[in-house]
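Continuing from yesterday's entry. The apo prediction looked reasonable, so today I'm repeating it with adenosine-5'-triphosphate included to see how the binding region is handled. Same sequence as before; SMILES copied from the compound registry.
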Amino acid sequence: MSASADNIISVRNLKVGYKDRVILSGINFEVRRGEVFAILGGSGSGKSTLLKNMIGLYTPMAGEVLINGKNMVTAYGDERLRLLRSFGVLYQSGALLGSMTVLENVKLPLDVFTDLPELAKDLIALSKLRQVDLKASSTRLPSELSGGMVKRAALARALVNDPGILFLDEPSAGLDPITSAGLDALFRNLSRGWGITLVMVTHELPSIYAVADRVILLDAETKTIVAEGNPHDLRDHATEPLVRHFFRREAA
Ligand SMILES: Nc1ncnc2c1ncn2[C@@H]1O[C@H](COP(=O)(O)OP(=O)(O)OP(=O)(O)O)[C@@H](O)[C@H]1O
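Holo prediction written out below.
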């Protein structure tokens, strides 16, 4: 089997930053189909910047982001649109529209990208709400939901186009540990049960150990990746002080 057959995302020699300020360079890694991949690092190490460059919100200074073999950086027109539709994104805030019900929020991408009849859109959106265990709240407004429920509703919306890849920016930010653990279980189910590839930015160690198959650790000082691998292996076997410290800071 070729090394690339299982890779759904390849990041090659990526250099990212703002104006002429380089935040990260020499970034190389692969994300394997179906895995939960976490981008880790201290505050300001460039996790969100890397994610935003991967999903096409920013243009890298150099390098490639291949998604299903297609370069996100240079894709334009219909090819770019197809690439954008091949993944979902869960933003940190959830970004639900306050004046719309949960169901209407989840349907939004179908309104934009398809001309399906309303009934079909309702059925698809309801099936996604069931997938995240939120079907009973479909007629509620976002203001009537808890923080964890807002995340689930936003997740249903990110899943509504049946993406093969889901990008998540700090999905547990601001949630209590129990709600956060519930979301982790949902992420595991999306990966193991539905075969969706998850790429998440996080610094919640319990979540990392609970769901991530592989991780990269970014470092603001050297502006690059300082460790890559399974988080349990890195915790138990890493010898570099910086890496040991990151993975053991809260571990028993
Ligand atoms: N829009 C922007 N314009 C200029 N500089 C930015 C912008 N966004 C982030 N930065 C800078 O880029 C660096 C990396 O920020 P980034 O938000 O990617 O880090 P992070 O690892 O996600 O941090 P955190 O965990 O605190 O969210 C920081 O020095 C930050 O000040």
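Comparison notes:
- The chain has nine helices and ten strands.
- The pocket of adenosine-5'-triphosphate is lined by residues 18, 23, 41, 43-49 (CB under 6 Å).
Will overlay with the apo model tomorrow.
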